[in-house]
Design goal:
The chain is of the alpha/beta class. It is built from 7 helices and 14 strands. β12 and β13 form a beta hairpin. The relative contact order is 0.16.
């Protein structure tokens, strides 16, 4: 499976400019089987003052244009997350689109961030752990702050997850936490993990980038720095069952 992670620069651009740039970046990873974008890239994670005004339903412009790109290039697209407007509430919602452009799954972020952030004040918390069946195996969806909570990854593992997709807007100075947690979540669940983080500065906060792809042994297959870039790697999902068979920590679980 050919996987691409788009580490996108997010600053103070208009939403329309961001969507156009995301489309251009997606054109550069055609030929991939699975692509992932960062968290709230279309507004800017720290642009809390714009959340309400620029929130969209799942039928909104961002989702429609990302669906069109997924269909154009025939890949599965984790379109990052948007601020979703639903039943009078706002959610941090990730979208997984199929190669036909149809919505396969959504995940509303469960762990909302409050430290130096207004996310937990503005948004409503999701309740459902999401794992999606694909031609390559089962994929679990997580968002940024979720990385700090091993329980949600165990819950995805219990639903059969073999690959975790993590969309994020993780800032400095906690770069070492980001790098460590990406690897640990893969190691402890003997699963692949692919993350997409923002770079750039949004409302005075600098994103730390370092998106990565990690194998079930916790080895980083590829990683970005703190500039906009495209990460590409080939992943053999059969390696998950092979590693779990060799080192059965998952099946040895008691709790």
């Amino acid at each position: 499976m050919k996987v691409a992670s788009i580490q996108m620069k997010v600053g103070e651009e208009r939403k329309s400019q961001r969507i156009e740039r995301a489309e251009a970046l997606l054109d550069q990873v055609k030929g991939s089987d699975l692509v992932i974008l960062p968290e709230i890239w279309n507004i800017g994670y720290f642009s809390f003052d714009r959340y309400s005004e620029e929130a969209e339903p799942l039928s909104g412009e961002t989702a429609q244009r990302m669906a069109a790109k997924a269909k154009e290039h025939g890949f599965h697209l984790h379109a990052g997350s948007i601020v979703e407007k639903k039943n009078g509430k706002l959610f941090n919602t990730s979208l997984l689109l199929g190669p036909d452009g149809k919505l396969m799954a959504t995940y509303q972020k469960i762990h909302l961030y409050g430290y130096g952030s207004q996310e937990s004040q503005i948004l409503s918390r999701g309740k459902e752990v999401v794992v999606v069946g694909t031609p390559w195996g089962k994929i679990g969806m997580a968002t940024c702050y979720d990385l700090r909570f091993p329980e949600i990854f165990r819950a995805m593992l219990d639903k059969g997850a073999e690959l975790f997709l993590v969309t994020s807007g993780w800032p400095y100075p906690r770069l070492e936490h980001w790098i460590m947690l990406n690897r640990v979540r893969a190691i402890e669940n003997t699963a692949f993990l692919v993350s997409s983080n923002c770079v750039g500065t949004n409302r005075g906060a600098q994103f730390c980038g370092h998106s990565m792809m990690v194998n079930p042994w916790g080895v980083i297959l590829t990683s970005g720095g703190d500039e906009e870039c495209l990460l590409k790697a080939e992943i053999d999902m059969d390696k998950v069952s092979a590693v779990r068979g060799t080192f059965p920590a998952v099946s040895d679980r008691v709790l």
